[in-house]
Every structure is written in C-alpha cells, then in structure tokens.
Amino acid sequence: MQDNYSYPLDETWTQSEIVTVIDLYNAVEKAYESGVKRDEFLQKYRSFQQVVPMQMEQKRLGKEFELQSGYSIYQVFKRCQKAKNSEKVRIQNESR
C-alpha cells in the first residue's frame, strides 16, 4: 500500500462517516493493487454516497483522491458496473 499521501476528508464528518469514506478509498486502492470484489466495492460506494450525497462533492473528493494517490474512484466504479456479480475487479494503472 502506498500511504505516503493523505486522504481528502471533511472536518465536519463524524468518526463513522470518516471510516466509511476511508473504506471506499481503501477499496479503490485494493482495485489497483490486488483487485477488489465487485459487490464489496459497490457496497462501499453506496455507503460513501450516504455520507456525501451531493454529486458535485463526490466528484471533488474523487478528483482530490486521484491527485493524491493516482487512483480513480470513477474508473473503479465504471469497471464494477460492467463486471458480473461476484467478479473481482483489478485495474492496471498506466500512470505508475
């Protein structure tokens, strides 16, 4: 894991909301590094949407996370939408 960057978080979130958002970031990292189960990722993404219901804010956090880590929440989400139910999704990152 590459933990030499900080996660984009909102200081107004509760502890459990922060955990939910970090869970999504971790699932995205997993998709790039070893692969993540489609259902697991989509469940974490839905939880993230509960914490961050505004699409504009979701996009902003996604862009910040991608700038920090090189990993795209959107790309993993798109790949998971196309995958079959219990399929493992792995993304090859060309930029690293």
How far apart are the first and last residues' alpha carbons, in Å? 13 Å
Radius of gyration: 13 Å
**H/E element string?**
HEHHHE
Strand fraction:
under 5%
Number of helices: 4
Low-confidence stretches: none
Q: Structural class of the secondary structure composition? A: mainly alpha
Strand order of the largest sheet: 1-2
The beta-strand count equals 2
Average residue pLDDT = 93
Helix fraction? 55-70%
Main β-sheet: number of strands, strand sense, barrel status?
A: 2 strands, antiparallel
Shape estimate: globular
Describe the structure.
- Helices cover 60% and strands 4% of the residues.
- It contains four helices and two strands, in the order αβαααβ.
- The chain has a two-stranded antiparallel sheet.
- The two termini are 13 Å apart.
Secondary-structure map:
Elements: H1 15-33, E1 36-37, H2 38-51, H3 55-69, H4 73-82, E2 88-89
Antiparallel strand pairs: 1-2
Structure summarized in a few sentences:
It contains 4 helices and 2 strands. The protein has helices at residues 15-33, 38-51, 55-69, 73-82; strands at 36-37, 88-89.
List the main descriptive attributes of the protein structure presented here.
single chain; 96 residues; mainly alpha; globular
